[in-house]
Amino acid sequence: MNRRIARFNSRITIQKNSTITDKYLNHTSAWVDYYSCSAYAGTYQHDKESSGEATTLPERTVNFDVRYCSELKDVKSNEYRVIFNGDIYDIIAVDMMNYQRQTITLQCKYQEASK
Prior knowledge:
Blueprint: E1 10-21, E2 27-49, E3 56-67, E4 80-84, E5 87-95, E6 103-110
Antiparallel strand pairs: 1-2, 1-4, 2-3, 3-6, 4-5, 5-6
């Protein structure tokens, strides 16, 4: 899959869930900026049926295509998330694009604000 560099016109920050120790040696979980890079954001919206109800809700999903680099080769969906335009996206799946070492696709779901 040959992508032109001009298509990677969006900036994303990938955060990692890490354990932080404060001055009292208490361990807490926190999101720490891990890597920032240019990406191509391919957005689409689809409807998701809610369980127990006969209604459908729109679900915001974004596929971020980024160029392959050694920092991103070990990204996992359960330890990382993406910040894009100030919004938080949970990583659902990581596609290494047949391990060709050209691009990586991060399939992400918009994280609703907690109430």
